[in-house]
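Reviewers of the previous submission asked for a worked example of the structure-prediction workflow described in the proposal, so we include one complete record here. The input consisted solely of the amino acid sequence. No template or homolog information was supplied to the procedure at any stage.
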Amino acid sequence: MTTEQRTLLSSWGLFVAVLLLMVGNGLTSVLLGVRSELEGFDTTTTGFVMASYFAGFLVGSQVAPRIMARVGHIRVFAGLSSLVAASSLAHALWVAPAPWIFLRLVFGFSMAGLYVVAESWLNDAVTNSNRGRVMGVYMVVAMGGLGLGQMLIGAGDPAGQSLFLIAGALVALAVVPVSLSGTSAPAFVTPPRLKPREIWEAAPLGIVGALGTGIANGALIGMAGVYATQVGLPPGRTALFVGAAAIGSVVLQWPVGFASDILGRRRSMLFVTLLAAAAAAMAAGLPPDGPAILFVMFLFGGFTFPMYSLSLSHVIDVLPAGRAVTASVAVVFVTGVGAIFGPLSASLAMSAFGPAGFFWTMATVHLAIGLYAIVRIVRRPVIKGMTPKPYVLVPARSTILLRLGRRTKKPGKGAG
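From that input alone, the workflow returned the following structure tokens.
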């Protein structure tokens, strides 16, 4: 049995827990968007509800590591899983904007802590030789679970309480495999911080890519259910619509990563973000109930979600050796800030231009990233002294990646 196989086998409980968490998370996210429309919330209010998840996530990603350093992985996982389950169930009891904003804050905060536990635990179990393959399996489990959860919107009546109960039960069950797993939790040390300004000076395109990706993906995750409801899609069709993007991210993440190792990060970011912009613009003009839009959503998800990994990989390429961990934390923070504005931007565009504003928001953001990438490539065609690392394949909402590897050469500033 190979080292990779032993790692995957010993981490079975963690993978099952992540799958259950992501299924519950995906179902809750799309359910709230659909239910907000059914309850008559205006689109801007719904945008604030969905954005509060990312605000809570941003705070949680900064606070949770400190809590875990004091009380350990398993206690944090059990406690935060209970908070996620309780907040998911409470959505069905208090159906109003203000309580939902608070509950989404709690939900996002708790999910951030759960991701910290899962990803730091997993990264402690892998080595530099098998990290990419193991994290690839993790990405498939995480994004596959998200897509499966979104597709469960067709399993019940969005106007009732049954789907909230299902989501809460799935999250609560995530504690079971972690508790029964025979693998000991590792010690956790909070990584040092790296200010976004330091990354900006070294790799400005990485910062712009992370911020823009946060906006686009926040809009997609937060407002896809709202769009589907506004255009009159039934629950079954809504499930296919919102799930297509997650499936696309699973299928295309590897090809995008391999291409970036050959073409270079910045050129890959340029091509991928422009393809995402084109897919979003194309979707805006397609009938929402036709087969073509499902394929286009598959392509859009396959291009927009890997942009986070491309941005992070580019930053790691150009920063000095030994800064990968702190760089990942800073990039996550920038992405989280963007994600807060994603649902808000999409909701304003949908209020002004109708449901198609959902797609035009994401198309505009990706086009802006592409234009900035062109400026950086033209201004600095070659980055001297850079030693590219293998593509860092991570979910778009990853919280922290430990031991991402070392670089052998130190680049100068202004590389992005």
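Residues 280 and 287 are 13 Å apart (CA to CA). We consider this example representative of the routine output the project will generate in years two and three.
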